[in-house]
């Protein structure tokens, strides 16, 4: 699917289909639709009927294979599911968890794929997402493949942060930068998609429409999050942490309704706007709550808020670790409480 804010990029790329390099890097902030763009591009390059700026026909044998997820000339590489660990009871192994890294054996497994002819005598596409999930060993293994490209093969790497990629990887890719969508296009898409509170969500998502759409599912919890911050001085970090811990295990299927990293990001955005309010009286993420932001920033010092923001950066780095959730949340909220009271 090509979104309205991607049309110019799509036209530019389709005009050079006959001279594409062997590797391209789709780079931009999360939530702007890079993954859907990559999938649409891969399907179009494998399609046997489409031409010009048109997307894949959706009807040929290649498109049918692609839609069913078993095209022999396409590979998707992303963080894999870890092997199941036995829990002591052979009949009830622990749930498989998705890794945060792309493993080196996933890249090495491409050797056989690249050494044989394509099944339809056309293109061969490999999508790697997110590219920053490769550690140095995995990136070096990919680098060897990119240094000796095979005919009719295109690597499509997707990244939210190209600064985390090896310079040698970057040098072997043509980078396609995805800018932040124009607000009017993003708003139109959200409204056409039936997203309520589109304006508020778009600002909270930093202008990224797909991220805003994802957050729309958490609108009620997001409002509860702000109410809890407002009550923090009275209720205290322990009580609020108890409420948020319930969100981490709310879904019946065993998955968290909201994960720890999301809560850290929400608090980061809030603290950022407190800083901005202190500095120049503006907000970026919470334009619908200026009075609440101003009230929360009233008794805070700039140094206290800057320290809190830096602490949240460190906390986010370990948010995916198997830490005690209640203690994790209590610690984070206590640091925030100290920051907003630092000028009293």
TL;DR of this structure?
Strands 2-3-4-1-5 form a five-stranded parallel beta sheet, covered by helices on one side.
Helix tally equals 16
Unreliable segments (pLDDT under 50, ≥5 consecutive)? 84-95
Note the beta-strand portion: 5-15%
Structural class: alpha/beta
User: What's the story with the biggest beta sheet?
Assistant: 5 strands, parallel
Inertia-based shape: elongated
Number of strands: 5
Q: In CATH, what is the class of the largest domain?
A: Alpha Beta
Determine the fraction of residues in helical runs and give it as a percent range.
40-55%
For the biggest β-sheet, the strand order reads 2-3-4-1-5
CATH architecture of the largest domain: 3-Layer(aba) Sandwich
The name CATH uses for the topology of the largest domain is: Rossmann fold
> What's the overall average pLDDT, rounded?
90
User: So, the CATH homologous superfamily of the largest domain?
Assistant: P-loop containing nucleotide triphosphate hydrolases
- List the domain count as a whole number: 2
Q: Report the order of strands and helices.
A: HEHHEHHEHEHEHHHHHHHHH
Distance between the termini: 53 Å
């Amino acid at each position: 699917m090509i979104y309205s804010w991607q049309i110019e990029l799509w036209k530019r790329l389709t005009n050079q289909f006959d001279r594409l390099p062997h590797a391209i890097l789709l780079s931009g902030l999360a939530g702007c639709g890079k993954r859907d763009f990559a999938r649409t591009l891969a399907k179009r390059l494998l399609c046997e009927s489409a031409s010009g700026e048109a997307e894949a026909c959706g009807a040929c044998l290649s498109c049918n294979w692609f839609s069913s997820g078993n095209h022999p000339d396409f590979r998707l590489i992303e963080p894999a599911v870890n092997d199941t660990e036995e829990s002591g009871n052979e009949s009830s192994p622990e749930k498989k968890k998705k890794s945060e890294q792309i493993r080196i054996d996933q890249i090495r497994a491409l050797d056989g794929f690249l050494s044989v002819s394509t099944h339809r005598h056309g293109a061969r596409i490999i999508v790697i997402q997110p590219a920053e999930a490769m550690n140095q060993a995995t990136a070096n293994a990919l680098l060897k493949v990119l240094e000796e490209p095979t005919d009719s093969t295109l690597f499509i790497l997707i990244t939210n942060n190209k600064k985390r990629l090896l310079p040698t990887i970057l040098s072997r890719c043509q980078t396609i930068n995805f800018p932040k969508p124009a607000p009017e296009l993003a708003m139109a898409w959200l409204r056409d998609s039936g997203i309520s509170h589109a304006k508020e969500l778009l600002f909270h998502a930093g202008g990224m429409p797909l991220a805003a759409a994802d957050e729309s599912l958490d609108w009620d919890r997001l409002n509860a999050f702000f109410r809890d911050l407002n009550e923090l001085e009275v209720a205290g970090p322990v009580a609020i942490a108890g409420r948020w811990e319930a969100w981490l295990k709310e879904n019946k299927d065993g998955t968290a309704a909201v994960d720890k990293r999301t809560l850290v990001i929400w608090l980061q955005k809030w603290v950022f706007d407190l800083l901005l309010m202190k500095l120049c009286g503006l907000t970026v993420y919470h334009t619908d709550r200026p009075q609440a932001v101003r009230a929360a920033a009233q008794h805070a010092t700039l140094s206290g808020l800057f320290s809190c923001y830096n602490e949240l950066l460190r906390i986010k780095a370990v948010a995916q670790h198997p830490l005690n959730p209640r203690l994790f949340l209590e610690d984070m909220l206590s640091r925030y409480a100290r920051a907003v009271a630092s000028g009293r």
